[in-house]
Write a structure and sequence with these properties.
three-stranded parallel β-sheet; alpha/beta; binds 5'-deoxyadenosine; TIM Barrel; binds FE2/S2 (inorganic) cluster; about 350 residues
């Protein structure tokens, strides 16, 4: 059975590639329950029942990349493209502050309009208006110099999912000008510059096997990111992957539990994609070991146009409605949203 592997994972926070693969391929509802209950216990020891919030501001739906899974890929001629003005972005943060957010995630496609000087100005304005808040960026791959300038401007965290740690699979999911090597270069630059770094991957995306997911877990174990964003693949109708099945909440939650056990203090979101494939996805993510949610602060007028995948939730709700809805959802399962920057906690004593 897998009981010995689960014990080893809990004790050493480490498994071999083959062991991770077996833990995934041979999983049963019983192993899922066991991992979830151990992950929940570990998370309670580090973070209690507090759930951190990040206010997500989607600043641009323009993207120069052509990822095969993503609805805002450059070849999607049907995508509606928008950019927020600096004033609008700052206003979203102000609204978020009043709702209790103390972290703002500025995210966008790889849009050359958001050059360093533009972003530095926005970061500086948000930091000046809300010095008790953290600014997190998520603008994909940039030069080391660019990451340095954004960090100097006051951004302390950066989210850049590695998407998949398997080089062959990475090539099948992306257009030829992208590479896993450059992705890894970006992640190590961000780490060296001093950002808190978020890696992460998609679950159940086309051609992905248990062996590929084992590579992702080994990468998380070795890189030790402060944050790890994982969510199910959700097809988008106007992409080459439109006809593939979505990933499952079951496998996503199983992996969330394993990641919590690999790194007990990791900041682990129950993602919007997880909430999209099943109605109680975010609650299930928290119960599996996640401790972060990322409600949307983008202006409702543009929500539907940040269209990474089909049927995305919360596209019609105002920021206050999402905050209220998620607060109630967390209370219903015995957790509570807190007004806090949500920095990574120290590891507990062994
Ligand atoms: N399904 C699920 N997640 C997706 N992302 C992009 N497209 C999809 C999709 N079709 C994720 C990627 C990216 C993040 C911002 O959204 O992992 O890093
Ligand atoms: Fe947006 Fe529930 S979190 S409506």
């Amino acid at each position: 059975g897998l009981a010995l592997l689960i014990d080893k994972l809990c004790r050493t926070r480490s498994l071999s590639l083959g062991e991770y693969e077996r833990l995934i391929a041979q999983r049963t509802p019983g192993t899922a329950r066991e991992l979830a209950s151990r992950a929940d216990a570990v998370r309670r020891r580090v973070y209690g029942t507090k759930v951190f919030t990040r206010g997500l501001i989607e600043v641009s739906s323009f993207c120069k990349n052509d990822c095969l899974y993503c609805g805002i890929r450059r070849s999607n001629a049907t995508a509606r493209r928008y950019r927020l003005f600096a004033d609008e972005i700052v206003k979203c943060a102000d609204t978020g502050y009043d709702l209790g957010f103390r972290t703002f995630v500025l995210q966008g496609g790889e849009d050359p309009f958001f050059a360093d000087d533009v972003l530095c100005g926005i970061i500086g304005r948000i930091r000046a208006a809300h010095p008790d808040c953290a600014v997190t960026l998520s603008f994909g791959e940039r030069s080391r110099k660019s990451y340095e300038r954004l960090h100097e401007a006051g951004a302390e965290r950066y989210l850049l999912r590695h998407e998949t740690a398997s080089p062959a699979l990475y090539r099948r999911w992306h257009s030829p000008e992208m590479s896993l090597e450059n992705r890894m270069r970006c992640l190590s630059d961000l780490r060296e510059i001093g950002y808190a770094v978020g890696a992460g991957f998609m679950v159940g995306a086309p051609f992905q096997t248990a062996a590929d997911l084992a590579c992702d877990l080994q990468f998380i174990e070795r890189f030790q990111p402060e944050m790890c964003g994982i969510g199910p693949f959700v097809p988008h109708h106007a992409t080459p992957f439109s006809a593939f099945a979505p990933g499952t909440a079951e496998l996503t939650c199983y992996l969330l539990s394993i990641i919590r056990l690999i790194k007990p203090n990791v900041l682990l979101p129950a993602t919007t994609a997880l909430g999209t494939i099943v109605p109680d996805g975010r609650e299930r993510g928290i119960l599996a070991g996640a401790n972060v949610v990322m409600p949307n602060l983008s202006p409702v007028a543009h929500r539907k146009d940040y269209d990474l995948y089909d049927n995305k939730i919360c596209t019609g709700e105002e920021a206050a409605e999402c905050r209220g809805c998620l607060g109630a959802r967390m209370l219903s399962i015995g957790y509570e949203l807190v007004v806090d920057r949500g920095d990574m906690a120290p590891l507990p004593e062994a």
